[in-house]
Protein backbone atom coordinates (compact mmCIF):
# COMPACT_ATOMS: atom_id res chain seq x y z
CA UNK A 1 0.00 0.00 0.00
CA UNK A 2 3.03 2.31 0.35
CA UNK A 3 4.98 3.64 -2.64
CA UNK A 4 8.61 2.60 -3.07
CA UNK A 5 9.70 6.08 -2.04
CA UNK A 6 7.73 5.89 1.21
CA UNK A 7 9.32 2.53 1.96
CA UNK A 8 12.78 3.84 1.12
CA UNK A 9 12.47 6.82 3.49
CA UNK A 10 10.85 4.66 6.15
CA UNK A 11 13.81 2.26 6.01
CA UNK A 12 16.48 5.01 5.81
CA UNK A 13 15.07 8.14 7.40
CA UNK A 14 17.27 11.22 6.75
CA UNK A 15 18.32 13.89 9.24
CA UNK A 16 17.04 12.15 12.36
CA UNK A 17 17.99 13.79 15.66
CA UNK A 18 17.71 17.12 17.39
CA UNK A 19 19.94 20.13 16.69
CA UNK A 20 21.91 21.06 19.80
CA UNK A 21 21.25 24.78 19.74
CA UNK A 22 18.31 25.16 17.39
CA UNK A 23 16.98 28.52 16.29
CA UNK A 24 13.52 27.12 16.79
CA UNK A 25 12.02 23.91 18.16
CA UNK A 26 8.39 22.86 17.75
CA UNK A 27 6.34 19.81 18.54
CA UNK A 28 3.19 18.83 16.71
CA UNK A 29 0.97 15.83 17.24
CA UNK A 30 -1.88 14.07 15.55
CA UNK A 31 -4.37 13.26 18.30
CA UNK A 32 -6.37 10.80 16.19
CA UNK A 33 -3.52 8.28 16.10
CA UNK A 34 -0.97 9.57 18.61
CA UNK A 35 1.81 10.21 16.10
CA UNK A 36 4.03 13.15 16.98
CA UNK A 37 6.88 15.13 15.48
CA UNK A 38 9.53 17.17 17.26
CA UNK A 39 11.21 19.46 14.76
CA UNK A 40 14.34 21.57 15.25
CA UNK A 41 15.60 24.13 12.76
CA UNK A 42 18.68 26.24 12.35
CA UNK A 43 17.89 29.46 10.51
CA UNK A 44 20.48 31.92 9.17
CA UNK A 45 19.70 34.95 6.99
CA UNK A 46 16.11 33.81 6.35
CA UNK A 47 17.32 30.42 5.17
CA UNK A 48 17.14 26.92 6.68
CA UNK A 49 20.72 25.81 7.26
CA UNK A 50 19.97 22.67 9.24
CA UNK A 51 16.97 20.54 10.11
CA UNK A 52 16.60 17.54 12.39
CA UNK A 53 13.58 15.82 13.89
CA UNK A 54 12.36 13.04 16.08
CA UNK A 55 9.26 11.28 14.95
CA UNK A 56 7.01 8.91 16.81
CA UNK A 57 4.65 7.24 14.42
CA UNK A 58 3.90 4.87 11.58
CA UNK A 59 5.88 4.33 8.39
CA UNK A 60 4.06 7.08 6.53
CA UNK A 61 4.73 9.60 9.31
CA UNK A 62 8.43 8.72 9.28
CA UNK A 63 8.63 9.01 5.49
CA UNK A 64 6.89 12.42 5.36
CA UNK A 65 9.19 13.85 8.04
CA UNK A 66 12.25 12.41 6.30
CA UNK A 67 11.51 13.70 2.81
CA UNK A 68 10.38 17.09 4.15
CA UNK A 69 13.73 17.47 5.94
CA UNK A 70 15.51 16.91 2.63
CA UNK A 71 13.24 19.26 0.73
CA UNK A 72 13.68 22.26 3.01
CA UNK A 73 17.43 22.10 3.58
CA UNK A 74 18.90 25.36 2.22
CA UNK A 75 15.55 26.90 1.24
CA UNK A 76 14.45 30.41 2.17
CA UNK A 77 11.68 30.67 4.73
CA UNK A 78 9.27 32.01 2.11
CA UNK A 79 9.92 28.98 -0.09
CA UNK A 80 9.30 26.68 2.87
CA UNK A 81 5.95 28.40 3.45
CA UNK A 82 4.96 27.37 -0.08
CA UNK A 83 5.40 23.68 0.78
CA UNK A 84 2.08 22.03 1.53
CA UNK A 85 0.89 18.59 2.65
CA UNK A 86 0.24 17.89 -1.02
CA UNK A 87 3.80 18.85 -2.11
CA UNK A 88 5.20 16.41 0.43
CA UNK A 89 2.82 13.59 -0.49
CA UNK A 90 3.58 14.11 -4.19
CA UNK A 91 7.33 13.95 -3.50
CA UNK A 92 6.71 10.50 -2.03
CA UNK A 93 4.69 9.43 -5.09
CA UNK A 94 1.54 9.65 -3.01
CA UNK A 95 0.31 8.42 0.35
CA UNK A 96 -2.50 5.99 1.09
CA UNK A 97 -5.68 8.12 1.36
CA UNK A 98 -6.30 7.22 4.99
CA UNK A 99 -2.77 8.38 5.87
CA UNK A 100 -2.92 11.57 3.87
CA UNK A 101 -4.14 13.71 6.71
CA UNK A 102 -2.83 12.00 9.80
CA UNK A 103 0.73 11.14 8.75
CA UNK A 104 1.48 14.43 7.10
CA UNK A 105 2.65 16.61 9.96
CA UNK A 106 5.82 18.13 8.51
CA UNK A 107 4.37 21.05 6.52
CA UNK A 108 2.28 22.17 9.48
CA UNK A 109 5.27 21.87 11.81
CA UNK A 110 7.53 23.82 9.43
CA UNK A 111 4.99 26.61 8.98
CA UNK A 112 4.42 26.77 12.75
CA UNK A 113 8.16 26.92 13.39
CA UNK A 114 8.62 29.78 10.92
CA UNK A 115 5.71 31.71 12.42
CA UNK A 116 7.23 31.27 15.86
CA UNK A 117 10.66 32.32 14.65
CA UNK A 118 9.31 35.45 12.96
CA UNK A 119 7.25 36.38 16.00
CA UNK A 120 10.30 36.09 18.25
CA UNK A 121 12.39 38.09 15.80
CA UNK A 122 9.79 40.88 15.63
CA UNK A 123 9.60 41.00 19.43
CA UNK A 124 13.38 41.19 19.63
CA UNK A 125 13.54 44.00 17.08
CA UNK A 126 10.83 45.89 18.91
CA UNK A 127 12.67 45.47 22.21
CA UNK A 128 15.96 46.71 20.77
CA UNK A 129 14.21 49.65 19.09
CA UNK A 130 13.22 50.54 22.62
FE1 LIG B 1 0.62 7.13 11.41
FE2 LIG B 1 -1.84 7.96 11.68
S1 LIG B 1 -1.03 6.12 12.21
S2 LIG B 1 -0.26 8.76 10.65
In short:
The protein has 130 residues and is of the alpha+beta class.
Fold and architecture overview:
This protein is an alpha+beta fold and 130 residues long. The chain is elongated and about 55 Å long. It has six helices and three strands; from the N terminus they run H-E-E-E-H-H-H-H-H. The chain has helices at residues 4-11, 59-72, 77-81, 85-91, 97-100, 106-129; strands at 24-30, 35-44, 47-56. Helices cover 48% and strands 21% of the residues. Helix 1 crosses helix 2 (59-72). It has one domain (4-125): Sufe protein. Chain: A (Alpha-Beta Complex). A three-stranded antiparallel β-sheet has the order 1-2-3, covered by helices on one side. The termini are far apart. Residues 30, 33, 35, 57-58, 60-61, 99, 102-103 line the site of FE2/S2 (inorganic) cluster.
